[in-house]
Amino acid sequence: MRTRLAGALLSALALTATGCAGAQGSGQDSPQGTAKAAASAAAADRVEPLANPAEPQLPVTVRSSDGAKVTVEAAERIVPLSGSLSEIVFTLGLGDRVVARDITATFAQAEKLPIVTRNHDVSAESVLSLKPDLVLAETTTGPEEAIGQIRDAGVPVLVIDPAKDLGDVGPRIQAVADALGVPAAGKELTKRSEDRIAAVRKGIPKSSEGSEKPRVAFLYLRGSASVYLIGGKDSGATSLLEAAGAVDAGADSGLEKDFTAITTEALAQAAPDAILVMTKGLESVGGIDGMVEIPGVAQTPAGMERRVVSIEDGVLLNYGPRTDQVLKSIVAQLYADSDGDAQ
Q: How far is CA 14 from CA 1, 19, 27, 73, 319, in A?
């Protein structure tokens, strides 16, 4: 999951990876919708490493996003402190060198690794106990004291800007690859990822003359914590929705912040034709049956049609090697009833 989420949202995010799914719904959700969600989760479960992983050529010196120059002498014991960064390392074919994971690294190849974060805060003691020779972090990784403690212990820490949109896929892959001493593999993975995204975009149904693009609202839901938010311009979902041939209904309705508390008025203004949610978020409110009980949802076109696009939490906003899978799933669910023209 993208770690660039602000303020009160961070505490709610901790519930995602700890599996705080609520009731599973009353059984009235459509079998088609349930099958789609299951297919999405299955597709997001594994990463696909490059066929011929390169051997790191070290040492290298790279510049961290926080301005520091970082010299990497070895990459035998790597600790990526976000799910997205873990995904990149594994997909570059260097997953056997990863010795720990962040709580948001939920894909199958990483699931048995020890977790060194709690509620998205890094435990410096846990990281250092594993004797890493490289730590990969994002500018949102914290607390700062923990990162400082790791650096003070002499461990190289490379900080990378968090993902915001599709344009970040290549630069983030290359930044990690350069730090690991496999720049050519970074170029190969970047091309593979961008080519796959382009292929998905070519298959998106074209809008028929005079028809409007589907409006999709990104809702962040955590029923156990009573967190119900609608994404705005900076939620991270806008680029994906636009790539899928849709309109980000929250951003288009004038929501400037990343996330805003859901109100009947906000949903009426957004008027979504479909709702994008994370899988565990949908589960946490009791499925589609529970979601339409949130004030204002049932009155939207999406609520009336029970039209939901559900994507696995740990991959939706990563903007990395699996973003083509995310985009493909969004397109498949959004245009499931299309006969070739966008709805």
A: 11, 9, 27, 33, 20
For tokens 């400082």, the residue is 148
Q: 111: Cβ–Cβ under 8 A, 6 or more apart, which residues?
A: none
* CA angle at 117 for the pair 111 and 121, rounded to the nearest 5°: 150
Task: Provide the pLDDT for residue 339.
Answer: 53
Residue 56: C-alpha distances to residues 48, 94, 175, 176, 221 (Å): 19, 9, 14, 12, 41
CB 50 within 8 A of CB 92: yes
Q: How far apart are CA 172 and CA 226, in angstroms?
A: 33
Q: Could you tell me if 308 and 330 are in contact, meaning their C-beta atoms sit under 8 angstroms apart? A: no
Q: Beta partners for 227?
A: 222
Greatest CA separation found in the chain? 62
Of the candidates 302, 233, 309, 230, the residue with the CA atom closest to the CA atom of residue 265: 230
CA dist., res. 185 & res. 56, Å (int): 10
Q: Which residue has the tokens 């190969």?
A: 188
Burial of 73 (0-12, 13-18, 19+ CB in 10 A): exposed
Taking a C-beta distance cutoff of 8 angstroms, is the pair 88, 102 a contact? Answer: no
CA distance 186 to 199: 20
What are the tens digits of pLDDT across the range 34-84? 444 444 444 448 999 999 999 999 999 999 998 999 999 999 999 999 999
| Three-state DSSP class for residue 146 | helix
Whole-prediction pTM value?
0.85
**Alpha helices, DSSP H, located in the chain:** 8-17, 31-43, 83-89, 124-129, 144-152, 169-179, 183-202, 238-243, 249-252, 264-270, 279-284, 287-291, 301-305, 323-334
